[in-house]
Amino acid sequence: MARKKGKKIISSTVFYIFVAGIATVIILPIYFLVSISFMSDQEAYDWPIALAPAFSNTFLLQQSDDIPGGFLISVYSRSKKDFSAIFDSDDLGKMIDFVNRKTSSKIPKSLLEEKIQELNQITAQNKAQITELKKQLKEENINISRLNRDIVKAKQKLKLIDPEDETFREIRENYEKQLEVKTQEKSLAEERIAQIEKKLREIGGVTFKVRKNIFASYITFFRVTSDSVGALLRSIQVALLTVLISLSIGGMAGYAFARYVFKGKNMLKLSVLFVRMFPGIAIAMPMVIILAQMGFYDKPIGLSLVYSVGQIGMTTWITASIFMGISVELKRLLRFLVLHVGELSLK
Amino acid sequence: MVITATKFKRYIPYLLITPTILYYAIFWLRPVLAAVFYSFQEEGSSTFSLANYKTIFSDPFFVKAIINTGIFVAISVTIEFVVALGLALLINKKFRGAGLFLSLALIPMALPATAVGAMWSSGFATYGWMNSLLYKAGLIAADGKIPFLAGNEFQSLMLVIIIDAWQVIPFMMVILLAGLQGIPKESIEAGYIFGGNKPTVLRKITMPMLKSSIQTALILRIISAIQVWLIIVMIYGYRRIPVLLEEVVFYKEELLGFYRIALAYSVIVAMIVSIVAVLYLKVSGAFKKEEA
After folding, report:
1. Residue A108 burial by CB count (10 A; 0-12/13-18/19+): exposed, middle or buried?
2. Among partner residues A26, A262, A276, which is closest to B108 by beta-carbon distance?
3. ipTM score
4. A315-338, pLDDT tens digit by residue?
5. Per residue in B214-235, pLDDT tens?
6. How would CATH label the architecture of B40-291?
7. Among residues A58, A52, A113, which one has the least CA distance to residue A86?
8. Partner-chain contact A286 B12, CB within 8 Å
């Protein structure tokens, strides 16, 4: 008995995991569509893309190297686990606008000014160290570009040499070794650069968090799309009219199908299919003319009339099955009444 | 008095279906006849000509479109039906949360094709969420991103089939599940009592009783599978993977002055669809059953 119960629990667990698996496959793409719609530009183009949208952004403010008196602002990327530079300017208004577009975070001007003051203090304190680190960074960058040149050169040479040819074997091996050494050196230099940058951030940068507007994309949509509210209302209007037309006309036919036997019933049932066989796009143009003659062109009712063509057939099938269902239930009810009340006489 | 009443009763069904017939005549038959009529006239002239059809038959994309559509219909309908039937048979019991699950299953079909296209083209992009998910699950390396959308024509078609299956399988499963739950328990139990094992009961009782559900699901599916186009255009644009209806839309929307060729194309598509549908109905015996 206990074993049987255990078996039942296992099988029902497996069943639920299976159902949950199917549900996940159905939901996952929809989830990502919704999740990405709440992301900022910067998040949406990050890779690997985050599983959920963030509610705030962390910024890093540094003094600009290229623009004297300007500032460089970077945002933290959760995917790269590092800051990535987004804007370099001495115009604070422009910076706020650009950052807002890119990350959906509107930095208050007072906060930015406060942080700039903080930054100026820090950089003044660590001035000697910062200049030293920047000098190191410059050297490393020059080093990297030299290494890159060497790597490209070695690769080109290797391409020219036939790998099967034994006469150039020594030269080829020489180049291969060179390539390996340079690549190694490059990765080491990159590591050093990362370390220097990290240190620079600590002593020459200020970080701060700003709330993100997760509805930014939606707000932009309704601002950019002219007449979006009107379009939404019209869609609802068209949908309601389509339901009304196809339900009243198709419902009548469905009732006939469910309750009566008549000639041509079979043909009519299949006509539902035939209507779907002719591509809707092809009848669009003649349809425009017909609707224009009726005065329905460019109106929601015209669109509903077109949509109803495909829907009436389906409605007929569905309502027919519903009407049949009602009759069965009614019969049961009547039988119950006959048996238990005994007063109703039925044919 | 009695005679008139019964006479009147005989006309009731015809009265009830008259609105439908009238509606079809005005809003379907008339435009279709107009489309067929104009498909036999060259653009800007009003004399009978087969030029539009000749143009289509000499278009190299026509053959490609036929082949692609054929592959799409054959593979997608088969996979979708088999998987949906399997799932329906496995899920066919009463369980907690069944209502929620069934309404979830109907969501993909209710989504507009543009949303489905956006969802999957952002998913299958090289830097999209599909690769991100695979990477996070540890299935691919950071530099091993799969370029889903960069495949050849056949691979691209398979991708479209997968996306289409995601949309259609849950819907088909619900239709088949509804059919399965309409089968009286007694008949299945009787099968077991008379010594049938699971496969026998499935083959001899469940499947025959499910036949009309299967027929409905399949015929509607075949008709709409032949007319697939929007999802392909949403993901790949025009003429990357030509299919029949995509060509119709291409001629109508993307080129100017080719409207009548699009009409002729539609007539051809309609012919193909009706031939396939009638063949299917003949083979599956829908005509016979209805007349009996």
Report:
1. exposed
2. A26
3. 0.83
4. 887 788 778 776 555 656 555 554
5. 887 788 888 889 988 888 888 8
6. Orthogonal Bundle (1.10)
7. A58
8. no
